[in-house]
Amino acid sequence: MKHWFSDGAFRAIVRNATYLGSSNVIGALLGLLALACAGRAMTPELFGTLVVVQAYAKSVSDFVKFQTWQFVVQFGTPALAHRDLGRFRDVASFSFGLDLASGVIAMVGGMALLPLLGHAVGITPQDFWWALGYCTLIPTMTAATPTGILRAIDRFDLIAVQQGITPFLRAIGSVIAYYGHLGFPGFIATWYVSSLAGDGTLWWFAVRELRRQDIHHALRPGLFGVARRIKGAWDFVWTTNFAHSIWSARNAGTNVLVGIVLGPAAAGVFKVALTFFDAAGTPASLMQKSFYPEVRRLDPTTTRPWKLGLRSAALAGGLGILVALLVILVGKPLIGGVFGKQYLEAYDILQVMSAALVVSMAGFPLESLLYIASRQRAALVAQALAAVVYVVLLVALAHAMGIMGAAIAYFAGQCLEAGFSLIPTVAAYRRRHTLSYYSPGEARP
User: Fold this and answer.
1) Distance CA 90, CA 223 (A)
2) Could you read off the pLDDT of 141-168 as tens digits, one per residue?
3) What are phi and psi of 308, to 5 degrees?
């Protein structure tokens, strides 16, 4: 491990993950304060409406948005390494144009569907106009270009600062709304302004860093004309978009399938276990966000990025074992204290899912390694196959073994995704001498 930390790239991954982790912890605590104020100040019905309005806008943006931050890292990082500022401008321009187009489409679509879906998701006619106004946030929620720019420039410290702005403003506004008895209008205005301020700060940071790097006119939106100068642009953004959609649908659909097969009570228990699973897996998700930009700076034709992936996987896997043991030790009293004794059954399935936690954390570098090898389609196929087999296993094992069968299926799904991703990753490593560092399909300058 001492030798590993002598590697500057490995140190950068851990450092950046620490930045993001510290920001997430602070943001989570401030978020709890905001929710506590809203929950105490309003009736359960109004509090639920506030949550539904925010969730509706976020769901629409998640469904439509492209993973443009990955595009900026994939194509822009090598351009910065070569000081090819013209190419980086093209990358940022295309990414911004895609964010702008998808954001407007998502906003218009979300507003148009609200009269049809509002009642189904729990938005009453008297709250319709509040929800419609909140949908104007969708374009800023969809945009990921500034995040990609800051990651490509290695300013994770600014991302960490920005991640704390929205929950900080939301907590302050919620305290004011609570003691000022401002009711539902006060809280939804706080949610809106804090989100807008947080997203605006991210854009401001990105613009400032571009100026410091002497990169001008990078945020002039472009699409088709710019894309013709970036070979593989459309293939990458559509592939990563489909992959993210599969991931989102699988996660969102798990509880739905458990509820269909075993009933709503079982779905509630499984949701509790999934909540703990997602929280415990946060270190791996933070490492992935810092790993991808760092490994993209390295030449994939050498062994260095692949060794970095192996070391990162070992570190994350070791953390996964420690976190899994911690979950097993404190999970039962924590579930009972937070959710109540009626949900203690979640602890039994959480023990099975703890093994899945180790697998998912150790396997986090695989997707990024496939991306730097321009094998994003292989990553998509791996996720799609794993998702299909997982759904079949979930339905079959839940029928046969109840909720414990659903937990076993979840563990199997994590193993399948890691295994299906590992096969093309090993193949890409063996053929690394045929890869190009600068950009897919292009020779290095």
Assistant:
1) 9
2) 888 899 999 988 888 888 888 888 888 9
3) -65, -40
**122 and 54 in a common domain:** yes
Domain shared by 293 and 177, yes or no? no
218 in helix, strand or coil? coil
In this prediction the pTM is 0.76
Give the separation between CA 228 and CA 225, rounded to whole angstroms.
6
pLDDT band at 352 (very low <50, low <70, confident <90, very high): confident
Is residue 437 within 8 A of residue 299, CB to CB? The reply is yes
Answer left, alpha or beta for residue 8, where phi above 0 means left and psi between -120 and 50 means alpha. alpha
pLDDT tens track for 190-205:
989 998 998 899 999 9
Encoding tokens for residue 87?
A: 């190419």
Domain boundary among 175, 201, 230: 230
Q: Does the pLDDT of residue 290 top 90, yes or no?
A: no
Residue 24 and residue 156 in one domain: yes
Domain membership of residue 13 as a residue range: 1-230
Q: How far is CA 223 from CA 93, 243, 312, in A?
A: 8, 21, 35
Question: Does residue 12 share a domain with residue 142?
Answer: yes
The answer to whether residues 273 and 382 belong to one domain is yes
